[in-house]
Amino acid sequence: MDRNRIISPREIENFIAEGQLIVIHEGHVLRLDSWLGKHPGGKLAILHMVGRDATDEINVYHFSKTVRLMKAYRIGRIQQPWINLEPPLRGGVYRKDGEIDESETSASDGEEDSTWSSKQLSLGSSASSVYTSADLESDISKETTEGVLVDEVRPRCKDALISCARRNAFAADVNEKQTPASKTPETHPAKNLSRAAYTAVLEQKEVFDGIRAYPSLDVETQGNIALEYKALHERIKNEGFYDCRYSEYGKEAVRWTILFCIFLFLLKAKWYLTSAIFLGMFWQQIMFTAHDAGHRGITGNFIVDTLIGAFIADFCCGLSIGWWKSSHNVHHLITNMPEHDPDIQNVPLFATSPAYFRSIVSTFYNFTFVWDAAADFLVPYQKYTYYPVMAIARFNLYLLSWLHLLSPRAANLGSAWWTRPVELAMMICYWALFGYGLLWCTLPTWPIRIAFVLISHCGTMLLHVQITLSHWGMPTADLGPTESFAQRQLRTTMDVDCPPWLDFLHGGLQFQAVHHLFPRVPRHNLRALQVLVREFCEKTGIKYQCYAFVEGNQIVLSRLEEVGKMVETLVKCQLHMAETGESGLH
Q1: Cis (ω within 30 of 0) for the bond into 348?
Q2: Residues 209, 120: one domain?
């Protein structure tokens, strides 16, 4: 096999149509079919990269030794620049040569069909009517872009519109040729909009907002951002940011030990409910180290870090580190994408994007999050239920942990097969000690048992708020295949600003934007790395979103309120339609 031959985009599409797992890395074409079942990071991490240039993702998630091993999977090279394809997992459809309809190949050499305004966008079976692209363009121009003409924005967002259209089952071609800015599109109120159509307008608004607020999505601009990001990555490697400071874990171990000893002392003194507070604080603090182990950020050795993570998460806290890693790996790759990021899939309790109004199929859970009457009722109040639910969120993590360990996903880890029995053993030990030894044998009455569980679990609330704080208030729009990895991570992630003496309270994970750019960097180095990330953002023109803790909470609550009001509007319109037979979305 000639591993240096140039493979055309058409040939790569043929490979994907045949079911091959093709990923681009450093200009080389990788065929990862034989590696899928062996990948310790799970299958989805690979499936989300099919047809895409995953150079940045591969380099920052893997050690140099692992990256070198990928040379064995090379089958050729591509011509730069490469335009990312939509992975089949995300809805990309590919056909072999000879199976493509003539109408699908009418455009050649990058020239798009110029009949966008004359085509209709099918909104799928859930739509009660067909909403034309002319309606969409006019409605967005009037109602959602605050005076910015679609024709002025369209050249910068063709790929983003295509991506958003695919997610809504649109069948359209986007015309890149703009009309003169002096010709304002005709505007009129949105008439006879179904739920699906109105949801599409809201999603398109988010796309336009993202396009206006960030650097251009053209290949050259995003390519330059990728080059700057690569240079920054080399710099942090050379300056030792990947070096783990074990002394910091020594300090943390002292803190955990003190908290746990206070818990035991108060428990023995029969100050049961007070002791519960310190057990919750112990859980909150020790899980920061489990996070590092899950990213192989402590020793860098998969086996050692996995055992550290399993001991802390499974044995000490009753939470599966395997579940966390399978979920977290995907979250890092496709942050804040409603259909794919499990960290923001919380319907019917919460919705952070209008995309959920149309009911989405989660590619992580292989489950349809149906938008139903429960969501209509609960989401408008999500601003008020946010903190109460965060206080008891740990119970949901117990459930997700057991569902993971008992699912085929935990068994299909290739060379990491041994992690499942290890986790099961440690989880059983946790429940034997906490459930039987503490709750049943030590605490005297049911009221005290219930109060102890609630108080101790509410003690981890800060951790849950902090995790959601970094993403729930951030954009969820997909700006298309040309957006660079670095820009997407910074666009969808918020950092929390706090003084250094409070780092222990946040565990260093208040620097989530920095962490998402370089997930293997030990969290004790993230504050120093923040300086370099700020410089990177100033140089590339990407907005660095860093807010004080209170301000960050206000941003999240505002987003929850905004989406809640969208739902209220939809519910009122449905009632209006039921009574009059006419749309209320005017």
Answers
A1: yes
A2: yes
Q: Indicate the number of domains in the chain.
A: 2
CB 127 within 8 A of CB 171: no
φ/ψ bin of 512: left (φ > 0), alpha (ψ from -120 to 50), beta (otherwise) = alpha
Per DSSP, helices labelled H in 358-392 are 373-378, 382-391
Report the C-alpha gap between 448 and 452 in whole angstroms.
6
Closest CA to 583 of 217, 113, 197: 197
- Considering the domain architecture, whether residues 143 and 194 belong to the same structural domain is answered as yes
The amino acid occupying position 61 is Y
**CA of residue 270 relative to chain centroid, distance:** 44
Residue with tokens 């794919």: 340
Amino acid at 459: G
Q: At what angle do helices 382-391 and 393-405 cross, to 10 degrees?
A: 70
DSSP state of 547: E
**pTM score over 0.70:** yes
Which CATH number goes with the domain that contains 31?
A: 3.10.120.10
The predicted structure's pLDDT at residue 578? 63
The answer to whether residues 78 and 124 belong to one domain is: no
Q: How many other CB atoms sit within 10 Å of the CB of residue 69?
A: 12
As beta bridge partners, residue 367 has 362
- Let me know whether 86 and 119 are in one domain: no
Whether residue 80 lies inside any domain: the answer is yes
Separation CA 161–CA 51 (nearest Å): 19
Q: What is the pLDDT of residue 37?
A: 78
Alpha helices in 239-271 (DSSP H): 246-268
pLDDT tens digits, residue range 73-114? 999 999 888 889 999 998 888 888 766 554 444 444 444 333
Among 263, 146, 268, 253, residue whose Cα is nearest residue 208: 146
pLDDT at 169: 41
Q: Which of 282, 281, 285, 303 is nearest to 293 (CA)?
A: 303
Scanning 296-367, the segments in alpha helix (DSSP H) are: 302-310, 317, 321-333
Domain that holds residue 13: 9-90
Residue 12's pLDDT band, with cuts at 50, 70 and 90, is very high
Distance CA 152, CA 387 (A): 41
- Domain end marker among 213, 245, 265: 213
Let me know whether 120 and 180 are in one domain: yes
Residue with tokens 């503490």: 438
